[in-house]
Amino acid sequence: xxxxxxxxxxxxxxxxxxxxxxxxxxxxxxxxxxxxxxxxxxxxxxxxxxxxxxxxxxxxxxxxxxxxxxxxxxxxxxxxxxxxxxxxxxxxxxxxxxxxxxxxxxxxxxxxxxxxxxxxxxxxxxxxxxxxxxxxxxxxxxxxxxxxxxxxxxxxxxxxxxxxxxxxxxxxxxxxxxxxxxxxxxxxxxxxxxxxxxxxxxxxxxxxxxxxxxxxxxxxxxxxxxxxxxxxxxxxxxxxxxxxxxxxxxxxxxxxxxxxxxxxxxxxxxxxxxxxxxxxxxxxxxxxxxxxxxxxxxxxxxxxxxxxxxxxxxxxxxxxxxxxxxxxxxxxxxxxxxxxxxxxxxxxxxxxxxxxxxxxxxxxxxxxxxxxxxxxxxxxxxxxxxxxxxxxxxxxxxxxxxxxxxxxxxxxxxxxxxxxxxxxxxxxxxxxxxxxxxxxxxxxxxxxxxxxxxxxxxxxxxxxxxxxxxxxxxxxxxxxxxxxxxxxxxxxxxxxxxxxxxxxxxxxxxxxxxxxxxxxxxxxxxxxxxxxxxxxxxxxxxxxxxxxxxxxxxxxxxxxxxxxxxxxxxxxxxxxxx
Amino acid sequence: xxxxxxxxxxxxxxxxxxxxxxxxxxxxxxxxxxxxxxxxxxxxxxxxxxxxxxxxxxxxxxxxxxxxxxxxxxxxxxxxxxxxxxxxxxxxxxxxxxxxxxxxxxxxxxxxxxxxxxxxxxxxxxxxxxxxxxxxxxxxxxxxxxxxxxxxxxxxxxxxxxxxxxxxxxxxxxxxxxxxxxxxxxxxxxxxxxxxxxxxxxxxxxxxxxxxxxxxxxxxxxxxxxxxxxxxxxxxxxxxxxxxxxxxxxxxxxxxxxxxxxxxxxxxxxxxxxxxxxxxxxxxxxxxxxxxxxxxxxxxxxxxxxxxxxxxxxxxxxxxxxxxxxxxxxxxxxxxxxxxxxxxxxxxxxxxxxxxxxxxxxxxxxxxxxxxxxxxxxxxxxxxxxxxxxxxxxx
Lengths: 578, 395
Ligand code: SF4
Fold this sequence. Notes:
Low-confidence stretches of chain A: none
Distance between the termini of chain B: 47 Å
Strand content of chain A: 5-15%
Helix content of chain B: 40-55%
Number of strands of chain B: 15
Oligomer: heterodimer
Bound molecules: iron/sulfur cluster
Strand content of chain B: 15-25%
Shape of chain A: globular
Largest sheet of chain B: 8 strands, mixed
Radius of gyration of chain B: 21 Å
Radius of gyration of chain A: 22 Å
């Protein structure tokens, strides 16, 4: 059994707040983070994303506040205005740690405030404070204005203006990116949440936790992807730029090609040479994969450089870094923003020039001029322009910077992901490209359905703990189950955690099904089945074989216990869950 | 899946870690597939059906060492804790089940242990290993458990002697009949310096295979590299040394590209060895007697507890220096380069041997063979000294 935990429920319509205990059986069945958030949505999961009664949930996990590496994180959960799916997104920063230190595992915000407000939480209590003066402010100014109240999670103008891919930004620069949860927060007139807890998180068995931590750290050190001299601790995720170029799977010009010859202009070493790239990262994380410049600015991640770069045919590193700055300041997802510009660029016959991108991003955040349409995301833009086939999305979520023609597990995982075209649900790049924990054949579908199913469950457990996926380039659930046992005093095994992950994945899929999602939504854009990638250097990148893809998708459904059309054979599935 | 089952069964037979005909696999795609010895593949599939996992392997080890370790363990012990680097880093420990625990529900008991570990030893059955993501992983985990048990048994036998009926005889048979000395005879090496990338890749591929075939490494462990100008050609992480085709990364010495992020975790050690020695070839294997002997230290009253990572001394095994240091970003990359230059070889405590070639792999390969043979001789010399040379009865 897990220790007792509390949740803060905030009704912004009435201005009332209450702290209550989270039913222990829910913690046992869902842990925290993504799992708990998804469970707490139950009953309201079919409401429209902007319905005042739709909850916006911030949930940390049972490892937060302990010495478990990469665990000072939280998930934000709601329903996405971009995709219409249930949505969770995880981020690091001090916020999660301070939240747990205020005696809370989670905060559930519902209702809509009549005027802009911020929520301030301490160990002693919470208050809803007016935020009219903050409305319209960018992230940096908002965070500074609230800094006396602790760690801040805030929206920028994009969230206020309902940009469908608006972020919630953590004060330290971490983004709750993807899916537009910032717009949900904006629809509630909630500008920011500040937390300043000061309690220590109790640890049941410190020796056990320390031993497990040492085990995990040894695995981090043994992993070339994490602590290798070319790995993410050294270069940040842009370490992947050169690799994706070499594997010929870097999406280029709206996925028309898969090699961008000038990508070395924004590779990890190039960013380091231009900006210094100091180590930075989530609070308490030993890996510190994020990088900041010598001037303190947060430098872009792999997805950001590749999508503002190759996807839009831009090699100017300074333009790319400035694009990242604007997204961070206004609170927008870089992947969706860049991919929407790219689809729009292909539709109008010209990708944006380096100088055009920053003004366009500002227009999007303000919903000004063409920005009004672009703020709707790539699917709606492409449809409005009469070219729906140019939207490189799955379930309306813009695909990140791994071309599915270069990794068939990734192709499948984009489609089975409950939150749309996301790489992080099953993260097959880990084995198909990075060879962790072992290599798999990236140009084969063989065995991928089961691999994706298992990885989705594992990652749902990781998101419920809440730990960082990058830790799993070295460690496994073996070490994290031990960390959990040390933290709680219980006995948790990787198999228990996988079972929790499975429950979370199925619950999400069930919610989506109730919102009308079906097999037809588990598909890739046509381009990937009809156009080849950029073959060369001994690597063939053909179009994906549709029949084989469909066959593996059917296998995936069977392995998940679903019908061949992806539906639930048991319509009462949900009532059988805790 | 069937082709993969055949492939890994073949590898287990070739690397002589499993008894011929006593290997059983199961793989769970959308349906369960079994292959190999029917009793063992059935057990594998029974265990697998209780876990969220892709592959399972149950096999009888070619040597009784894992079995002996279980039978020699005290009644209150439930896991083997070998102290080699492989175990410390990846396995943590190796749980085991005794025969009497296996009577009621063997698959259930084994599955419950495998729910938290990569491999187990089941008394009277053998090693059962899981492949959470691929079938290859089950093979790798089997290999790791076998390697760790082998090394631990060598050390335990040396320290405590033989304790079980028939143990001494089995060990003598192993020593006399089952243990050919590794050698470089009959192998063809390309003389250096090599230049063209195809030539370098072909030589790396061949030498990688030799290293496995001559028993200097279990296929999945170890790494190998060759330097041409400012490029290091190095085997990728998680690559099997006997299957290096397409698994070698060219990495610039100055790290101006990060495409080598998939290179071996020992890239840093290789690079520093090249910088420190001017060698052109580096070979790293895990020959078992060298691993075992590196863990024996006579230093009395030494305050260091975690010798494997914290020992600062350079000890000598014959003419080969032994240093401590964790793999990857741990201390090994700092401690090996300064000592490897003159002797051309070094052993890392509990881990394995690095050997260099000044202009090609032959020198490196011969050095590694020599180190392992020398460690073997020394091991048996100490064993004989402990027991008296002619003794063969159980103690
Ligand atoms: S690895 Fe990077 S993203 Fe993950 S917790 Fe650490 S700093 Fe944050």
